[in-house]
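# nightly structure sweep
# worker-07 picked up a monomer target from the shared queue
# config: single-sequence mode, recycle default, output format = structure tokens
# input follows
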Amino acid sequence: MITLNSRAALYTDFYQLTMAQGYFFSGRSETKACFDYFYRENPFGGGYVLFAGIGDVAEVISTLRFEEEEVEYLRKQGFRTEFLDYLRRFRFRGSLHSVREGEVVFPLEPLVRVEGTLIEGQLIETLLLNMVNFQSLVATKASRLRTAAGNRRLVDFGLRRAQGLGGIHASRAAIIGGVDATSNVYSAYMYDLEPTGTQAHSWIQSFDDELTSFRTFAEMYPTKCVLLVDTYNTLRSGVPNAITVAKELEQRGHKLQAVRLDSGDLAYLSKHTRAMLDNAGLSYVKIVVSNQLDEYVIRSLLQQEAPIDTFGVGTRLAVAYDSPALEGVYKLAASDGKPRLKFSDNFNKMTLPGTKKILRYSDGQGMFYSDGIVLSTESSVDNIVHPFFSAQHSRVDGMHFEEVMKPVVVEGRLAHPLATVNECAAYARERLSHLSAEHKRFENPHTYKVGVSVKLLDLRSHLYDAISKKIN
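# output follows
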């Protein structure tokens, strides 16, 4: 695992360890518990999230252990000897059920269920939140870029703008969300992705003239030559020089692959560039654009009929510029054999108690219709109820449904080989094809129906009443 081959056990918040020690000395180190991961609001003002990151989580926790140096570090922080001895022996022996990477998901759904001891559940919380929140956010952004770009090529250029090592996971998530390739060589190597790249302005500036820089690059990379044409003047210098080099490549039996625009009015410049290339008999040369692109800019460019073949997206993908965090949470749902409720005066902050699963219902055309959150003991339900407005409900009896949560880790071991990033990306494409366009639109997307079973609603009401009596 990338940066976590060692010290993974310390990839946590300090209070997780203080609670773990508290559980240990209060005699609850073996108390069984169930935790849920979910989020409350879609990012980007959108209608869904594309789930990602759980593969990295599963890989880490299946080999999680405290090394001697880590134990000694914790000793210096004041942790007690008996607890440190427990940590030396610690292995995650719990289970993890999750929706698949690339799944289309919605607010309030228990997307990951962690079952094990209280200590096991607490020690992996921060790591799970960190990886799943971020990767799901970037994968969702990438899927929106894909919606805007249609079948045009998308490339991740975001590593240099990402928040430190987060760029490694950003590139992974971008591929799951629908990006074709990445400039990030590290992630390409680690995850078997397609690496790609052109040249920087510094290459061209390092020569005395632009044409010589183009010729030198073409001599070195005759079969993969992409020329950056906006260092000096795109239409008066860059494109004419690229045409000259393209003709010289033809004479040697090769073809210029593309030209790249990185500044200026991309719609205007791409149209004139296309005309100049076509007039020179170079209709096969592609046009690549970059520079502060997002789904809205891409949509605008294509609405203007800009003849662009490839979009390189950096900052606004890798840092999820307009929604910089997915506020996923991790809550206790059961412990010591009893369902548990997070009580709140704000009813929207109330959790759903007990061990649960998700049933996804589809209509007669195979399109996703609604999701039901039900108790794990329920095999089917006839009716799902709005989580907060019980008067709103939907009949689902007789509809086709599937369970979308699957075991990922069972008793500390991977339940099955983890899917590759490209397999997750293919799954995401397939699942998104079943989500109606009104849920994918950028402005005012239609709210996807997520309801709870009557039994689950009754359980929450019972616990709410019981807690209310105790505090009033």
